[in-house]
Fold this protein.
Amino acid sequence: MSCSSPEVTESGIRSTVAHPTPAGAGSVLAVVVLYNRSFNDVPCASRLTQWLAAPTTASTLLSLAHCVIYDNSPVAQPLDSDKYDRIELFHDLSNGGTRAAYLYALKIARDKGYPWILFLDHDTDLPHDFFLDAERALTTAAHDTPVCAVVPHVFDGLALISPSWITSYGRVYAREDAQTAADNRVGLTAIASAAIVRTASLAAVLPIPAAFSRDYLDHWLFRELQRRGECVAVSSARVQHSLSVQLMKSMGIDRYRSILAAELAFLRSGPEYSSILHLLWHVGRTVKLMLSTRRPALAAACARAALTILRIK
């Protein structure tokens, strides 16, 4: 439907917040998920620090109050905690992925009383009017349905990638006018990065299955949020994001296997799933992958996944 306690290792390294700020009704906690990149190299880093330093007013519906840097890198990336106010770092040596980062952010948001969480990957950039556009989406949403999240229009270069539709057999396609889910076979979904999710709504869909530590977490999250009868508001903000699955010519074989396994787990757990429709779509995708990448090993991995769809061992 749309509308007009975390697993963290003891070896994690955390720098505490120097100047905690009391949470307000529109306070937002941002969580930036890093891998082998410092916070200074994140495209929206300067924007986040500006927002943290900006004064807020009583009429502000959404304002950034706190930022968590969740570092999955093998070696902790540097962060000058004295330079950045209201930013904390957590280093996860186990590389728990996006799932672990979101669970950690949820704990912080609940402990400090932040009603909203902004998810960010390290390759996402945000426009200066991002929060203003999100506020407009909130105020124009249908008042008879609770809003669980606000998502922007996300582009990889010139290509629109979110919000999008996802069918019960796995086809995903983005549309500028994506506003409503037609039926159980087609649902509204979005890239999690740059999505602002209500803390209480995220807590209500726990636990997050371990199968979605990284891949298909976005699709699982938005499906489960809307299953509860809440709606996703779509803002007019235009966000830039580098989508790794767009780069199939350089995709690692193990990485692609992981994506296909998460896809199957997601689809099998959803309504109206048909293994036959999934298989037909998957065969067409395998042929297209071979023709577009000229990588037999990648196409072979995709072909072998067809046996898993049919539960053939």
